[in-house]
Write a sequence for this structure.
């Protein structure tokens, strides 16, 4: 070849255009229609998982399309009639962001944003399509599908309504992955994990306000006792609603040899915590986690606020102190504890990842991943409840589009109840032949651990969730009469 790939670049050089004159001579464009007219009862259909309409064709596209083309041509040579309709995924945040980056205007209306995004996607589709045709891919290029076509959208909305009727779609207020860099909720599939993310981890004192009745005989004779908790997300402390313990684990009341203070931590974590704090702990008494029942702590940054001691099975002894700070608005397990014990789930963080007015004047409008986190640490220090701060390198979720860290934030979203679909999906998957076979186990595990799928996004360019809301209560309106009206409107707009 007279061209090659530039090292480190996935883009295909423009010099490949020298081969364009070869295309009409080879008759690639007629091959698909010719083989469709053959008289044979054997049919092979390849469903095209579509490329995303947000950039130029690259090596990844080439690998995908050429492998599919090899498969199709192999079946054609075995006397099959091949059915292959290519398509494009045309909605989503990357297209919206790229379309907006090309606009000089600010404060565009939702309709204007959608029009700009559609025009951008159409432009990209034509560029990618011409590249795929130039590569000689055998396909039905005259009848491609696009996910922004009204007929395609109408089918999606019809399925949404069917799933809602069967109880598979619901709205709820719960913690979800949230991207402050794009101001929207994200699904788990939209995350990538940075293995070298550095957090400011802190060891914090939660003063024991009301000793558990079963421990009163030991604690009543002691000066102030504090529970020690560890977290890598100090900014979530203002939203704390409880401290969780493992019921079946053993805990210790210890005395610090350096300061004379008394602490409670898991027995398995006594030595490691003492070493980290550069001190020694003398064990005064040990007890089972169940003895924590009906105990109460003081909140470490909010005077007068109380945090109950509650049992939870997600508490581990592999790191930390065996006691877990619980903020229902910012953790999946925390949300489960709060739901069971009917704890408040107020979120103190807005869609831009900043503290709201409800967090107090010291924190309001500060970004939780930056100056807001620093402010909370300083508040802990000022309240004399900060024992230690250190850098902690760990795996942390990032928005795969912006490459910036995400948070977990409670908000009202729409979900698919994948827990109730799991069994049927797993049985269907077992009928699929996976190459390599290891892919089967990976997909089965993914289905097993995912209990819900967040499908709503706080953006403009996508298939709308077909719901009206009461202007006073905010409750969603979905019923048979509404759907008939909506379906008629869809039919009219398609025509």
């Amino acid at each position: 070849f007279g061209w090659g790939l530039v090292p480190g670049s996935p883009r295909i050089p423009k010099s490949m255009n020298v081969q364009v004159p070869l295309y009409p001579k080879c008759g690639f464009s007629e091959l698909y229609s010719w083989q469709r007219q053959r008289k044979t009862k054997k049919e092979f259909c390849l469903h095209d998982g579509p490329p995303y309409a947000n950039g130029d064709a690259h090596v990844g596209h080439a690998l995908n399309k050429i492998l599919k083309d090899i498969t199709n041509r192999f079946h054609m040579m075995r006397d099959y009639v091949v059915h292959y309709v290519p398509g494009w995924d045309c909605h989503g945040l990357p297209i919206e962001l790229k379309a907006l980056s090309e606009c000089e205007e600010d404060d565009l209306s939702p309709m204007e944003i959608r029009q700009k995004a559609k025009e951008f996607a159409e432009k990209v589709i034509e560029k990618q399509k011409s590249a795929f045709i130039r590569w000689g891919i055998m396909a039905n290029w005259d009848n491609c599908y696009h996910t922004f076509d009204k007929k395609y959208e109408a089918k999606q909305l019809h399925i949404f309504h069917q799933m809602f009727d069967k109880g598979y779609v619901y709205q709820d207020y719960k913690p979800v992955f949230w991207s402050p860099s794009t101001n929207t909720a994200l699904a788990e599939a939209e995350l990538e994990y940075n293995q070298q993310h550095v957090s400011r981890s802190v060891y914090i004192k939660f003063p024991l306000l009301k000793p558990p009745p079963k421990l009163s005989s030991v604690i009543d004779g002691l000066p102030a006792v504090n529970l020690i908790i560890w977290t890598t997300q100090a900014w979530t402390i203002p939203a704390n609603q409880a401290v969780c313990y493992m019921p079946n684990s053993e805990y210790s009341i210890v005395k610090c040899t350096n300061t004379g203070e008394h602490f409670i931590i898991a027995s398995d974590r006594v030595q490691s915590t003492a070493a980290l704090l550069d001190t020694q702990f003398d064990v005064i008494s040990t007890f089972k986690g169940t003895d924590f029942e009906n105990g109460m702590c003081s909140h470490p940054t909010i005077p007068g606020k109380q945090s109950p001691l509650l049992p939870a099975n997600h508490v581990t002894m592999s790191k930390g102190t065996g006691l877990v700070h619980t903020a229902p608005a910012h953790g999946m397990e925390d949300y489960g504890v709060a739901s069971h014990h009917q704890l408040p789930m107020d979120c103190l963080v807005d869609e831009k990842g900043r503290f709201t007015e409800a967090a107090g004047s010291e924190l309001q409008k500060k970004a939780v991943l930056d100056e807001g986190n620093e402010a909370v640490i300083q508040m802990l220090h000022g309240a004399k409840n900060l024992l230690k701060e250190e850098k902690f390198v760990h795996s942390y979720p990032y928005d795969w589009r912006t490459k910036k860290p995400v948070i977990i934030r409670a908000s009202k979203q729409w979900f698919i109840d994948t827990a109730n679909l799991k069994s049927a999906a797993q049985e269907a998957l077992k009928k699929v032949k996976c190459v390599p076979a290891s892919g089967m186990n990976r997909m089965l595990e993914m289905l097993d651990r995912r209990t819900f799928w967040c499908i709503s996004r706080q953006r403009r360019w996508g298939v709308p969730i077909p719901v009206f809301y009461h202007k006073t209560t905010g409750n969603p309106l979905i019923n048979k009469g509404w759907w008939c009206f909506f379906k008629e409107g869809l039919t009219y707009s398609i025509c």
In short: The two ends are 49 Å apart (CA to CA). The chain has three domains: 14-147, 162-178+403-494, 191-399. Confidence is low (pLDDT under 50) at residues 1-6. The CA atoms of residues 51 and 64 lie 9 Å apart.
